[in-house]
């Protein structure tokens, strides 16, 4: 839609894979989802591996949260004791899969490490930084767009349980993203709801907003 709005000819090569050909003024570019032929394999690898991303950003003079590669022993707990509040994430992955935010107890850390390890064998533990979650788009060294990424939340109807609201919202997300984005009914969702003082079986009052995930 955005390409056609700009007068760019669009040919869908593979709808399921998200691959299209864009043509304009004698130039043709093939893209797949947000990637194009201009994206190098090195750049892709640096974005795919969060350890490399941390290094690149840090070397550019930007502050990054303190972190370490999990060793699944007492040293992980020692890091938690030192910083007090952490985020655990697989070094590779997307859509927030395997990520747990706001861990401050040994039991939570152990569960989060196991959850992240299901997605990838290498896991990062980072100090949690307070603030909003922003996705920045930079082209040719300039910030051209910024999006505020909000964790999933549901809106009460006064008739439906929180479980029903989450399931309905998850179906809407899945339908809008071709099945990529869902709200899992897992321990993290349950813990997030419980911390807010609710349970899955409670009926959320009409107009009441409830955040059900910690990550966007």
Features:
globular; 12 strands; four-stranded antiparallel sheet; 216 residues; alpha+beta
**Which structural class do you get from the secondary structure elements?**
alpha+beta
Helix and strand pattern: HEEEEHHEHEEHEEEEHHE
Q: Helix amount, in percent?
A: 25-40%
- For this structure, the quaternary state is single chain
How are strands sequenced across the largest beta sheet? 1-2-3-4
User: Roughly what is the average pLDDT, rounded to an integer?
Assistant: 90
Given the structure, what is the number of helices?
7
Structure report:
A hairpin with a 4-residue loop joins strand 1 and strand 2. The relative contact order is 0.10. The protein has 216 residues and is an alpha+beta fold. The radius of gyration is 20 Å and the shape is globular. Helix 2 crosses helix 3. The strands form four sheets. A four-stranded antiparallel beta sheet has the order 1-2-3-4, with no helix packed on it. A four-stranded antiparallel beta sheet has the order 5-8-6-7. Helix content is 31%, strand content 26%.
Question: Summary?
Answer:
The protein is built from seven helices and twelve strands. It is an alpha+beta fold.
């Amino acid at each position: 839609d955005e390409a056609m709005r700009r007068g760019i000819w669009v040919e869908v090569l593979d709808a399921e894979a998200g691959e299209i050909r864009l043509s304009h003024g004698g130039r043709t570019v093939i893209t797949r989802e947000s990637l194009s032929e201009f994206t190098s394999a090195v750049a892709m690898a640096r974005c795919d591996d969060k350890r490399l991303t941390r290094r690149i950003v840090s070397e550019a003079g930007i502050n990054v949260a303190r972190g370490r590669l999990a060793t699944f022993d007492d040293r992980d707990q020692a890091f938690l004791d030192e910083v007090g509040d952490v985020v655990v994430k697989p070094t590779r992955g997307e859509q927030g899969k395997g990520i747990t935010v706001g861990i401050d107890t040994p039991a939570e850390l152990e569960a989060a490490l196991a959850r992240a390890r299901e997605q990838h064998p290498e896991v990062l533990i980072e100090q949690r930084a307070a603030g909003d979650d922003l996705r920045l788009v930079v082209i040719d060294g300039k910030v051209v767009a910024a999006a505020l990424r909000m964790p999933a939340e549901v809106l009460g109807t006064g008739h439906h349980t929180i479980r029903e609201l989450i399931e309905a919202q998850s179906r809407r997300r899945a339908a809008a993203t071709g099945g990529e984005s869902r709200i899992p009914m897992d321990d993290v969702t349950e813990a997030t709801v419980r911390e807010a003082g609710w349970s899955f079986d409670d009926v959320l009052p009409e107009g009441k907003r409830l955040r059900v995930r910690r990550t966007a």
